[in-house]
Design goal:
Blueprint (H helix, E strand, L loop, with lengths): L15 E4 L8 H7 L14 E4 L2 H4 L7 E10 L7 E10 L35 E9 L15 H5 L11 H11 L2 H8 L12 H14 L7 H6 L13 H6 L8 H4 L1 E9 L5 E8 L1 E5 L6 H8 L3 E3 L5 E3 L3 E3 L1 E9 L3 E7 L1 E4 L4 E4 L9 E3 L15 E12 L4 E7 L7 E5 L2 E5 L1 H4 L14 H4 L3 E10 L3 H4 L10 H7 L6 H22 L4 E7 L1 H6 L10 H7 L1 H4 L2 H13 L1 E5 L4 H12 L6 E7 L5 E6 L2 H4 L4 H8 L4 E7 L5 E2 L2 E2 L14 E9 L4 E10 L10 H7 L8 E8 L2 E5 L15 E6 L3 H10 L7 H9 L1 E8 L19 E6 L4 H12 L8 E6 L5 E4 L8 H6 L9 E7 L4 H6 E9 L5 E10 L4 H12 L9 E5 L2 E6 L13 E4 L4 H12 L3 H4 L3 E6 L5 E3 L6 H4 L5 E6 L21
Parallel strand pairs: 8-13, 22-26, 29-33, 34-38, 39-43
Antiparallel strand pairs: 1-2, 3-4, 3-5, 6-7, 6-12, 9-12, 10-11, 13-21, 14-15, 16-17, 17-18, 17-21, 18-19, 19-20, 22-23, 24-25, 24-26, 27-28, 29-30, 31-32, 31-33, 34-35, 36-37, 36-38, 39-40, 41-42, 41-43, 44-45, 44-46
């Protein structure tokens, strides 16, 4: 349906006034003055009149739109309850004038009964069609806006922050801090003139704040995340907002802005004794569950608990006393950050969950009642809401955004990553309270998953100071020099001009790309620098940047990279081939005549020369025409040939280039020489064979001359057909019989005498003696990075301590056996290491040691690498250990690491014991006692510790085979007072909540329950297999209350 573009609720009511046709009917004769009477019956007539008061302002209007709710209904004439209705809403604008429904109800069912109704919509061939229309006033200017052409800076004066991957949590906090103007000013005052923006958090914050103030486009945060030490992968992790806030670089400079003081106390009722502790806080964590609003959360936080009965307080000098325990605030900071506990640990699920309960917060709050009564107060403690940080979604996936009121008593804005939108107060407050679940509804239906998790309040008496505008004078000069395009200095002008010129050049180059052809030209020098199969790898520039083998040769890489760039020509399609040859000759600075050969990829995936490009036939052709003739790809690959200088069969080859008219067509071959002593395959040039009918033996003098070998040297020749196919050549055959063509490769080596073979095997065993052997090595060559197996941290957490000095890269073949790999690696270490005393461990995808590699028959390096999932990736990694015994003896035993923890929580170890695989823990106990000289009667309990967690408890008669390969044994005991502290951290309870939890000894059948005393040692009284620690706590989530709660098990680790 279409509607008029203007209405009285349009954004311009002072400019346009609509005359409502119902209240101001237009006489029929007035219509007839304009529209001729065609002598046809008139069904209906209507006139709209717009009175435009200010034409000059009207024609300047860019945002002409109207927000409409509407519905179309079909209704039974006699029974209005029988109807079919569809509703919609839309923001009508000049480019979106049509919106509605293309289908309401099928005409075939109008006479049939409508579901849930006793009669059809159409009866007696009649029905009602009703249109409902409601014009909605858009208070924010963005109601139902599709945001496709939305400009945040233009509409609001503010810009957003780009989401660089799950960083919306950081963006929401940064916007909140930015609009705390006092914080922004304090951040600008941190000395950063000499800081590196990728390493300095203060400078990164300054740059972001400056850009937020002056930029017209959304701002990136990559520099800031780099300054925190995050890499690309880490930025996808949902970091905790609260911790990010506490770690802010400006913390020291503006601690008086965010830091308050609170007192935790225990005060005896019957005697004059009080124990208290005053500490700073950056934020206050308030319960949401069980509290309907913010005031109730503060009351709950400051609630006083009475310690009486079995829970009486041990007062120094007074013994057990009844007491009051609680917290009270000494001072609230000017800017108050309130963390609403939307994310809590659920004991029943043993996991974190999100609390979506409704929790209201006011626009203003008075916190005077929560201050200590005798505190010397300065000013009042009334606060106004400045920011609402919101989380939408559940625990596993969600989105963060911020609602902020930048100015005192100003408007609210929503900061959603790169978009900034004006919003109403209801959208900022009421819509983020959360919702109360309704009985009988499903979770998704009953919960509103968008709710506030952090509130920012500013003290009323300091609003003007804290939210005062930040002017240019507040910004350090070095930032203004870097960014401000108004305060120009000569160096900056030059820098910016150069950047603009480079940007414009790149843009133009991209636009003109279709006008050019890219040609890659290689020379004999390039082939000589190429190592391995084929003549050249045109994609090797990419391999240089990624392949581990090439990264070993950094200096060579730089030369190759420079050479590759030299060989790439960007040629206009309209240039002639003659002009292109002149450009090639100038770049390669050759004064000799040369010709260019087209290079193609053959069916066997090799790249070889195919045919020379004739100057006579092609010099006047354009490069585009030439490309269509000789190349099937978007780029041309060419070889630059210079004339031969040797003689073949007493014929000079200086003029070989011109011999195209001979009946016996010549062929051009490429030559490689293999030296088994140096283990190198060297390119020794190409040769033009005058006649294919010649025999290969006629080429022998030239081959010997290329390597300055004696004339009586016997040679062995091969053809390099493709990877994995190196064919032996018989010299008495002709080139035509061997089917050799232009671009084929001949490889040759000297035939080793018996004495040379003996010397080679003696001095360099395991070397490659023949060309096929060497090519086989190349095809299976891989660079393996050997890392020293990391030591374990003292403690329960496995920490990888990598010693880079002990890392060694070795070039190996994937066909090597375990023993061959060990031998090669021991030689690379160069420390007289016995290869039989080396043990290797595979590497996991995370870069950590995975599984020890067993030395078995027929095991090859490819198997060793694939065990960690890294084979054929950029870097292949193996971890190594130096053993005190041979690997054969080691494999028959087990190396066990034991961490001993005494009753005072002192750690010893890890201690290593080499024991038989069938040993029991009683044997370990004996060895441990002897090692540490423990009391003979000492009782040691063993636990399986993996990555900081206790997985299993062992009896002394158990076999060590039950222990996992990557496990560490620990024997640990501690008094209950220490266990209680660890338990509180495990379930993430604050001091106030945890003080209400009662902890007791619980037998497996719950027949025995008793409280612990602080000096009891748990491992002396608990059997981890049948007895537990019980927690008696209050469950505030009454909606999900169950008759019996599921318990949790806490092992003494």
């Amino acid at each position: 349906m279409s509607v008029p573009n203007f209405d009285k609720n349009s954004p311009t009511p002072d400019i346009i006034n609509i005359k409502n046709p119902l209240n101001n009917p237009v006489p029929a004769n007035e219509i007839e003055k304009i529209l001729d009477d065609l002598d046809y019956p008139v069904v209906d007539q209507l006139v709209y009149k717009w009175e435009i008061k200010k034409w000059d302002e009207f024609i300047k209007q860019e945002r002409v739109y109207i927000c409409v709710q509407f519905a179309i209904a079909l209704q039974n004439v006699e029974d209005e309850t029988v109807s079919k209705c569809m509703t919609a809403r839309h923001r009508f604008a000049p480019n979106q004038v049509d919106w509605g429904f293309n289908h309401l109800v099928s005409s075939t069912v109008l006479n049939q009964g409508v579901p849930d109704f006793s009669r059809p919509i159409m009866e007696k061939n009649s029905l009602n069609v009703i249109v409902y229309l409601k014009i909605v006033k858009d208070e924010t200017g963005v109601l139902w806006h599709n945001l496709l052409d939305y400009d945040s800076k233009k509409e609001t004066g503010f810009v957003g922050l780009k989401n660089q991957g799950a960083t919306c949590y950081m963006n929401s906090l940064l916007q909140s801090l930015y609009f705390t103007s006092y914080f922004r000013k304090a951040t600008f005052q941190i000395p950063t003139v000499n800081d590196d923006p990728t390493k300095s958090v203060p400078l990164a914050l300054q740059r972001i704040f400056y850009n937020l103030q002056y930029s017209d486009d959304p701002i990136g945060t990559i520099e800031l995340t780099k300054s925190f030490g995050w890499d690309t992968l880490d930025s996808f992790m949902q970091h905790d907002v609260q911790e990010f806030n506490r770690g802010s670089a400006a913390e020291g400079a503006i601690s008086n802005l965010f830091v308050g003081k609170m007192k935790s106390y225990i005060k005896c009722i019957d005697v004059d004794f009080e124990s208290s502790r005053i500490e700073d806080f950056y934020d206050i964590q308030l319960n949401v569950k069980g509290c309907k609003d913010l005031t109730e959360s503060f009351i709950d936080y400051c609630a006083v608990e009475t310690l009486e009965g079995e829970n009486r307080y041990q007062a120094e000098g007074y013994g057990l006393q009844d007491a009051k325990k609680g917290v009270i605030f000494k001072k609230f900071p000017p800017v108050l950050h309130l963390q609403l506990k939307r994310f809590e640990y659920d004991m029943e699920r043993d996991d974190m969950v999100k609390i979506n309960d409704r929790h209201e917060f006011p626009l203003e709050i008075d916190l005077d009642q929560f201050l200590e009564s005798d505190e010397d107060r300065v000013g009042e403690y009334r606060y106004s809401l400045h920011g609402v940080l919101v989380h939408s979604g559940d625990l596993s996936a969600g989105h963060y955004m911020a609602f902020i009121r930048p100015e005192k008593n100003g408007k609210w804005f929503k900061f959603d990553d790169d978009k900034v939108l004006p919003v109403t107060q209801k959208e900022a407050l009421n819509d983020n309270y959360g919702e109360i679940s309704k009985p009988g509804q499903q979770f998704r239906q009953s919960r509103k998953l968008t709710n506030a998790y952090m509130l920012v309040y500013v003290r009323n008496s300091q609003l003007d100071t804290i939210l005062s505008p930040v002017t240019e004078a507040d910004i350090p000069a070095h930032l203004r020099k870097i960014y401000n395009f108004v305060i120009f200095i000569p160096l900056l002008v030059e820098r910016l001009s150069k950047e603009r010129e480079e940007t414009e050049a790149k843009r133009k180059e991209h636009e003109d790309l279709h006008l050019y052809i890219f040609c890659k030209v290689i020379t004999d020098e390039d082939i000589q620098n190429h190592e391995g199969f084929d003549l050249f790898d045109f994609d090797q520039l990419n391999k240089i940047k990624t392949n581990a083998f090439y990264r070993q040769q950094q200096e060579k890489n730089l030369l190759m990279e420079k050479q590759i760039q030299k060989n790439i020509f960007k040629v206009k399609k309209t240039d002639t081939f003659k002009k292109f040859k002149e450009i090639v000759g100038d770049r390669f600075q050759t004064e000799m005549s040369f010709r260019l050969w087209n290079m193609v990829t053959r069916k066997n995936k090799t790249i070889r020369t195919e045919q020379p490009i004739s100057d006579f036939d092609n010099e006047n052709k354009t490069m585009e025409e030439l490309q269509l003739l000789i190349s099937r790809n978007s780029e041309m690959k060419l070889y630059l040939e210079l004339p031969d200088i040797e003689k073949i069969n007493n014929k000079s080859n200086l003029n070989a280039i011109k011999q195209f008219t001979d009946k016996d067509v010549p062929i051009m071959l490429f030559l490689k020489y293999f030296d088994p002593f140096s283990q190198t395959l060297e390119y020794v040039g190409k040769v033009t064979v005058p006649s294919r009918s010649m025999k290969v033996m006629e080429l022998m003098p030239l081959l010997l001359n290329r390597k300055k070998l004696p004339s009586d040297t016997n040679l062995i020749l091969y053809e390099e057909v493709k990877q994995g196919m190196i064919d032996l050549i018989k010299p008495n055959k002709s080139f035509i019989n061997l089917e050799l063509l232009d671009g084929d490769i001949l490889c040759y080596q000297k035939e080793l005498t018996a004495k040379e073979l003996e010397r080679l095997q003696l001095e360099q065993p395991n070397q490659h003696l023949t060309i096929p052997d060497y090519f086989d090595f190349i095809s299976n060559r891989v660079v393996v990075l050997f890392k020293e197996f990391p030591a374990m941290d003292h403690g329960l957490q496995l920490g990888m301590k990598e010693n880079l000095k002990n890392n060694v890269e070795v070039v190996l073949s994937i066909k090597m056996s375990y023993d061959q790999v060990a031998k090669k690696f021991s030689e690379a270490l160069g420390k007289d290491i016995d290869p039989m005393k080396l043990r290797f461990t595979s590497c996991s995808n995370s870069g950590l040691p995975k599984l020890p590699i067993k030395r078995v028959e027929k095991l090859m390096l490819s198997d060793m690498l694939s065990a960690g999932g890294h084979y054929r990736q950029q870097v292949n990694v193996l971890f190594y250990e130096k053993l005190d015994c041979s690997i054969i003896e080691f494999d028959s035993k087990r190396n066990l690491k034991v961490l001993y923890v005494d009753e005072n929580l002192r750690e010893f170890g890890p201690l290593e014991f080499l024991v038989l695989k069938a040993a029991t823990f009683s044997e370990i106990e004996k060895m441990l006692s002897e090692k540490l000289k423990l009391n003979e009667n000492a009782k040691i309990k063993f636990f399986d510790i993996q990555y900081g967690k206790a997985y299993q408890y062992f009896e002394t008669e158990d076999s060590i085979s039950k222990l996992g390969e990557n496990s560490t044994l620990t024997a640990q005991g501690e008094v209950f007072s220490e266990t209680r502290i660890r338990l509180q951290k495990r379930i993430d309870y604050n001091d106030k909540d945890f003080s209400k939890v009662k902890i007791c000894f619980c037998s497996g059948d719950a027949s025995t329950l008793r409280l612990f005393s602080n000096d009891e040692v748990l491992y002396n009284i608990l059997n981890p297999k049948t007895e537990y620690i019980g927690l008696d706590h209050i469950d505030k989530n009454l909606a999900n209350k169950k008759p019996v709660e599921k318990g949790i098990i806490l092992k003494d680790n």
